[in-house]
Amino acid sequence: MPMADQNRPVPVTGYPAPPASNGYPTTAYPYVPQPRPNQGTYLNVSGPYYSDPYATQQRATFIRRIFAIVIACVIITGTIVFIMWLILRPQVPQFRVDTLTLSNFNLSSNSLISGNWDARLTVRNPNSKIVLYYDHIEAAVFYKSESISETTVPPFVQGKKNETAVRATFASLSAYVDDRNGISNERARGTVNFNLRMVARVRFKAGAWWARRRILKIYCPSLSVGVSANTSAGSLLGGSKHCRVGL
Predict the structure, then answer these.
(1) How many CA atoms lie within 13 A of 207 on its CB side?
(2) What residue segments make up the domains of the chain, in order of their start?
(3) pTM passes above 0.85
(4) Residues near 47 by Cβ (< 8 Å), separated by ≥ 6?
(5) 62: left (phi over 0), alpha (psi -120 to 50) or beta
(6) What are the residues whose beta carbons fall under 8 Å from the beta carbon of 59, sequence distance 6 or more?
(7) Which one, out of 43, 66, 168, 184, has a CA that is 20 to 30 A from the CA of 204?
(8) What span, in angstroms and rounded, lies between the C-alpha atoms of 82 and 99?
(9) 63-94 burial by CB neighbour count: b if 16+ within 10 A, else e?
(10) What is the residue-wise DSSP string for 43-69?
(11) 3-state secondary structure (DSSP) of residue 182
């Protein structure tokens, strides 16, 4: 048997290398992207992408610090307000109706009411460390829940543990009321009950410390005025009446 030619090329099994591109040979192995330092390689349906865990951690730390600062500010503010409240112990002022006079009172057949009301009140500041500033006061006289007349009271300043006399006058020429029979029946008995309501914007000041403006709601119910069917004038019965005050 003839001997194999040693110079004959030996066939190599496997896949041939892809042709060169632009004159440079290419590798037969696919390219696998390598992660950059401090980065991970993730695979999703759209292909490989990269995420920086260090940057993510920095963002999370920043958000946690913001929340911590906000919570600390709320706690500090609440603590300061609570301490101020313990020191000052603010109380709402006290209102009292001393007199209420009625003149030129008339109720027409078509349920129109007219008259003049003159209310004298005493306002007391029970606080020993706080000065009260009444910036705006609105007042109204009612029969039950129906408004008859409205007015405004001049602003004033009230010192510590001080009492201030306040006057509110009302006038009505033709206020309509639904319950005409109720007024007529009360008048036949010699008394008509009116209600006085007030809304005041008040500021509290203690030294250099100012509290935010508060809205006071004052309600003085069941003010019985002695006026009969034969008279058009009357005054408050039963002495002074204390009012309910709320924020």
Answers:
(1) 5
(2) 40-88, 94-246
(3) no
(4) none
(5) alpha
(6) none
(7) 168
(8) 39
(9) eeeeeeeeeeeeeeeeeeeeeeeeebebebbe
(10) EETTEEEEE-HHHHHHHHHHHHHHHHH
(11) helix
Q: What pLDDT tens digit does each residue of the chain (247 aa) get?
A: 445 455 555 555 544 555 555 555 555 555 555 555 554 444 444 445 555 676 777 877 888 888 888 988 888 877 766 665 545 567 899 999 999 999 999 999 899 999 999 999 999 999 988 899 999 999 999 999 999 999 999 999 999 999 999 999 999 998 999 989 999 999 999 999 999 999 999 998 887 767 778 899 999 999 999 998 889 999 999 999 999 999 8
Angle at Cα 138 formed by Cα 105 and Cα 158, nearest 5°? 115
Nearest to 90 by CA among 157, 160, 138, 155: 160
Q: What type of residue is 166?
A: V
Cα–chain-centroid distance for residue 134?
Answer: 20
Tokens of 134: 């009444």
Give start and end residues of each alpha helix (H) in 89-199.
180-189
Query: 94-246 — its CATH code?
Result: 2.60.40
